[in-house]
Amino acid sequence: MTENEVSAFLKRYPKVTTIELLISDLNGVLRGKRIERNLLEKVATKGFYLPGSVMSLDATGTTVEEAGLGVNVGDRDQKCCLIPETLAIVPWIEDGSRAQALCTMVDDNDEPFFSDPRQILCNALERFDELNYQVGFAAELEFYLVDIDRDADGRLQPPASSKTGRRMGSCQVYSIDDLNEYDAFIQDVIQTARAQDIPADTVIAEYAPGQFEVNLHHSDNIVRSVDHAILLKRVIRHVAKRHGMEATFMAKPYIEESGNGLHMHLSLMQDGKNILAADNPVNNPTMRHLVAGLLSMADSTQAFMAPNINSYRRLAPGAFAPTAKNWGYDNRTVALRIPSGGKAATRIEHRMAGADANPYLVATALIAGVAEGIRHRMEPPEPVTGNAYDQTHPHVADNLRDALRNMEKDVRVADWFGESFVKVYKTCKWHDLHLFEQQVTQMEYDLLLGYA
Fold first, then answer.
1. Helix (H) or strand (E) run with residue 32 in it
2. Which entry of 37, 93, 306, 345 is 20 to 30 Å from 166 by CA?
3. Segment 265-306, tens digit of pLDDT
4. Domains detected in the chain
């Protein structure tokens, strides 16, 4: 980020007194620090420092020492740099005194830090550019609004509408009435996103009470597109809080309802043309190579798509979350959907990731799968017609343990993500798994305490 960009911003926003410097950890959680206005120009040119161990945190935000970035190396600081064009006002601070900027971490030689998820994506894109194709992304994020107060049994519940006091209690997918009842929240999300130059403009009611989906514009700047997805989650959480609610991107907050997905719409361009476009896209050779490559890496990248124990509760048959390695035209029961619509907009909707996944790592996995499919001219299985849940197809892992083992087996993952990064990631996720398994649940007490 240049001094000119900083000075122009500060001149435009004279009320700004503090700036939040944000960086994504392995889990897609934004970490960082807050600085005073007078330090911003210095930080923009010289950077600032955070412990490298922020890139090896478990789900509780605690350093996983076994990953090797903590006390074993003295818990060393790493330099962080501001990312150009990410400096923006924080609209939910009503007096206009707060701004924010995204950052990225570098090593002692000012080279990309091996465990920074954003740098992992940037490295993958540099390799992908050698193929002379351009990939475009558009993200769809699903989330739930929940009441700050729990129900009588201490469980989550949908919020009551500020307009009617009614609490959503049934699935009204695409309901305009449900959108109207939460119109103030939705409009606030859109306006807040615009204030930060985040291109979000579509919100729909989804498949469960209190569940919504927000869409980002298609972009051929993949890193910026993912930056927007990370920042949009922050916007939604803060706007929900301002409206007296909570927003969650947890993959499966209600076991009886649909889960939250992160759907990535993927296009492929060459010389300004969409090379996936065809009258019958399932027979387009390039489309088939892409699909085959993505499916070939589905097993080994599942731990990025579903990074938490709860992630696998989303992968239930019949719940519009993919459980198998399949694809099809205009079919929401498959993992890779080719949406209907205009020929020029032909694309792949990748439906495997949960909303709890780190978008930088999901995007990297997609880039890797596309590249492998193109390079090796892979061929996919036949596309699915009808309900894929009623058919037999090779399944992806339904638990984190198997997903991590599949990751370890595929040398392509280490090749695209970096061997050192994969070591850190899997160490942290095994730690999360063991942490979860050390808990005794209430159901175990209910079923076994007096009988076992």
1. strand 30-36
2. 93
3. 999 999 889 999 998 999 999 999 999 999 999 999 999 999
4. 3-115 (3.10.20.70), 127-417 (3.30.590.10)
CB 346, CB 403: distance < 8 Å = no
Between CA 421 and CA 108 the distance in angstroms is 17
Residue whose structure tokens are 């090797």: 68
Which residues, in sequence order, are CB contacts of 411 under 8 Å at separation 6+?
A: none
Q: Per the structure block, which two tokens stand in for 281?
A: 């896209």
DSSP-based three-state secondary structure for 266:
strand
Measured between alpha carbons, how far is 201 from 216 in angstroms, rounded to an integer?
A: 7
How far apart, in whole angstroms, are the C-alpha atoms of residue 317 and residue 308? 19
Tokens 């063991």 correspond to 434
Concatenated DSSP letters for 79-142? EEEEPTT--EE-TTSTTS-EEEEEEEEE-TTSSBPTT-HHHHHHHHHHHHGGG--EEEEEEEEE
SS3 219: strand
pLDDT tens readout for residues 52-106: 999 999 999 999 999 999 998 999 999 999 999 999 999 999 999 999 999 999 9
Pairing of the two strands 273-274 and 261-270: antiparallel
Please give the model's pTM, rounded to 2 decimal places.
0.95
Crossing angle of helices 117-128 and 359-375, in 10° steps, is 20
Instruction: Decide: 329 and 284 in contact? Cβ < 8 Å.
Output: no
Tally the C-alpha atoms within 13 A of residue 120's C-alpha that lie toward its C-beta.
Answer: 33
